[in-house]
Design brief:
One of its GO terms (molecular function) is transferase activity, transferring alkyl or aryl (other than methyl) groups. The protein is mainly alpha-helical. The protein folds into two domains: about 25-170, Tetracycline Repressor, domain 2, CATH 1.10.357; about 170-294, Four Helix Bundle (Hemerythrin (Met), subunit A) (Up-down Bundle), CATH 1.20.120. Helices cover about 75% and strands about 0% of the residues.
């Protein structure tokens, strides 16, 4: 069955559409959706239920747009890394995916414009990053890929934070520092996602850090996570117990990447990395609530 197949009952077709959309975004709830929502909630100076619903909707529709755009070009590697995705599993064609991608871009810009100039600018910047990353091949270079990841992640967080604060409310100093440190954190550690995908990246000709420097990249991640844990604990004023716990998290995740080097363990390590990253995005909450000073 494909999206263009005729004579399908409406309930079955509706379920097929919903499942296909979910499969586009399935990998990134733990990497984008929940971390961005939690980060915006932790750093925004104000929030209400209405703003939270609007924020979650905005993040999700932009996540779908980003996934559809990226997966338009990654079907050949997804056959190895993620065969359940809509394109390699035959649920949708490349032409249908490309049309869907541009339709989503228009929807995202219209939705963002409703929230104001600031959110619209974040959406436009995210769309531009997707174009240079996917259409112009920036994803094939480890440095440019990381830069695209940083800018993309920051636009997600900036848009979510502005919506959560209310229409056109400015981002305060705490939110600005949180966004800046988040960008640096992503830029210096995001290659943690590339270990599990190394086989598919080799097939597509991508030069990710685990492929270019297989040993050095693992030593680096082993060192970087504890160093970041110490730096973030100091920046956000964590207490001794919370700071030590966060440091132990970084040490544990880094050691998992260094000790276990097969694809299965790398997938498990990436899940643990996302738990650590999620915790890192919660820490700015301490600047407002002082709940983590013990």
């Amino acid at each position: 069955m494909t999206l263009s197949e005729p004579r399908v009952s409406f309930p079955r077709l509706a379920f097929f559409y919903l499942e296909t959309i979910f499969l586009f975004t399935r990998s990134d709830y733990k990497t984008i959706f929940f971390p961005v929502i939690i980060s915006a909630t932790a750093t925004a100076p104000c929030a209400g239920l209405k703003q939270f619903i609007h924020t979650a909707t905005w993040v999700w529709i932009h996540l779908l747009q980003a996934n559809v755009s990226n997966q338009t070009y990654s079907a050949h590697e997804d056959v190895i890394n993620k065969p359940w995705r809509p394109l390699p599993s035959g649920r949708i064609t490349v032409d249908e995916t490309r049309r869907f991608r541009w339709f989503l871009l228009a929807i995202c810009l219209c939705l963002s414009g409703w929230h104001g100039v600031g959110v619209f600018s974040a959406s436009a910047a995210l769309s531009l990053v997707e174009i240079v990353h996917d259409d112009y091949g920036f994803s094939s270079d480890p440095v440019f890929k990381n830069l695209c990841n940083v800018v993309g992640y920051l636009t997600f967080e900036l848009g979510a934070t502005m919506i959560l604060c209310g229409l056109e409310m400015s981002v305060d100093r705490t939110s600005f520092v949180a966004l800046l440190t988040s960008g640096l954190l992503i830029f210096t550690t995001i290659h943690a996602q590339d270990f599990a995908d190394a086989d598919g990246d080799r097939v597509s000709g991508r030069r990710t850090l685990p492929i270019v420097a297989p040993e050095g990249s693992r030593i680096y991640i082993l060192t970087a996570l504890p160093v970041w844990s110490i730096a973030l604990s100091a920046l956000w004023g964590l207490g001794p117990f919370c700071g030590m716990f966060f440091l132990l998290m970084g040490l544990f995740v880094g050691s998992q990447y260094f000790r276990f080097r097969d694809a299965t363990h790398d997938q498990s390590s990436y899940v643990l990395y996302n738990v650590w990253l999620l915790a890192a995005h919660v820490l700015p909450m301490n600047a407002r609530s002082r709940l983590l000073t013990w």
